[in-house]
Structure formats: C-alpha cells, structure tokens
Specification:
- The protein is α/β, with parallel strands linked by helices.
- It has 5 helices and 8 strands; from the N terminus they run E-H-H-E-E-H-E-H-E-E-H-E-E.
- The strands form 3 sheets. A 4-stranded parallel β-sheet has the order 2-1-3-4, sandwiched between helices. A two-stranded antiparallel ribbon has the order 5-8. The protein has a two-stranded antiparallel ribbon with strand order 6-7.
- The longest helix is centred in the N-terminal third of the chain and has 15 residues, at 32-46.
- The radius of gyration is 17 Å and the shape is globular.
C-alpha cells in the first residue's frame, strides 16, 4: 500500500523531547524520542514506507532551553508527553510555547503533540490550559472515530480498516 503524501521523501520529523526520562524507561527505551521514533517508524512501515523514508531528529528541549530545529530543515514537528505542567511560566515552557507559535504562523511544517505536547499547542493557540482542580483525576475509556479523510490519510483509498478505537485516558490537566 502506498503512503498518500504530497511531501518528498524522506519526510523529515523533528521530535521535541519535552521531558527528562524516567530511569526505568531509560533502561529499555533510552528516551521519549526513541519511543516516539519507534511508533513513527512502525506507522510508516504499516503504510508501505521504510525507515529510510523518514528522517527523524531528536531535540532535547528541557536540558537545552531554546534548542529547536530550523523550520527550513523539517517537514513536521512532534512534541512528546511530559510530567511538567503545560501552563508553567518557566523559561523552558515559555520558549517551547513561543517556538510552537512560530510553527503555527507558517503553513508548510506540520505539528503534532501528544498529551503535554497537545496542551502546549493549545496554549500557543491561545487556549487556557491548567490543572483540573474541580474534578481531580479523570480516567475513562474514550472512543475515537476516524473521519473518512483520516482513514484515507492513514490507510489509503477504499481499504477496509479500523474506523474506531477505544483508548484509555488518564489526566489531571485540561484544555479549555
């Protein structure tokens, strides 16, 4: 199955590592970036691409504040999860929000965030992010449905594929 893309290959993805790694996870996975890389490579392979079709770079944005890729050198920016608060005002978080605003201000480079990463994107877009003090921890199973466009993007035209998935969600933070 061919990957439906308008981009030339290799597709260059900058993974912004937004957390210090958990020691137990380090033993097996090395970093959030290597975990994210493995997921992206597996997804590319499932879409008929090879590892050579992706050019993944890792960027430590916690210990190296302001360490961001040049947008001319990437096709997508991927923000990982983190134990940190997306609503913090420390230099690391504010620099990350400013960089994401720069990405959002242009049209070419794609942007995706997971958990903390999506909260940073929301904050950069002006949404209120913060702790969910009124309800505390939220845990749920959430059904996620792919649109027709989403199914075409991930799996190609006319394929019988997964259209819905049940995901476990746990959070204390929210985007309003």
């Amino acid at each position: 199955m061919a990957f439906p893309t308008k981009h030339k290959l290799p597709f260059r993805i900058a993974i912004l590592e937004c957390d210090d790694d958990i020691p137990k996870a380090l033993e097996k996975y090395k970093s959030y970036g290597t975990i994210s890389s493995a997921f992206l490579e597996a997804g590319a392979e499932a879409a008929g691409l090879t590892k050579a079709d992706l050019e993944i770079s890792l960027w430590d944005v916690v210990d190296q504040v302001g360490n961001f890729p040049n947008l001319d050198d990437v096709d997508a920016v991927f923000l990982t999860g983190s134990k940190y608060d997306s609503f913090a005002t420390d230099p690391c978080t504010t620099a990350l929000v400013s960089f994401v605003q720069k990405v959002l201000a242009q049209q070419r480079v794609k942007l995706i965030g997971v958990c903390y990463g999506h909260q940073i994107i929301a904050r950069a877009m002006g949404a209120k992010v913060g702790r969910n003090d009124t309800q505390g921890w939220e845990t749920s199973v959430t059904d996620v449905d792919l649109t027709n466009e989403g199914r075409r993007f991930f799996f190609g035209e006319g394929k019988d594929v997964l259209v819905s998935a049940s995901l476990i969600r746990v959070s204390t933070q929210g985007v309003c």
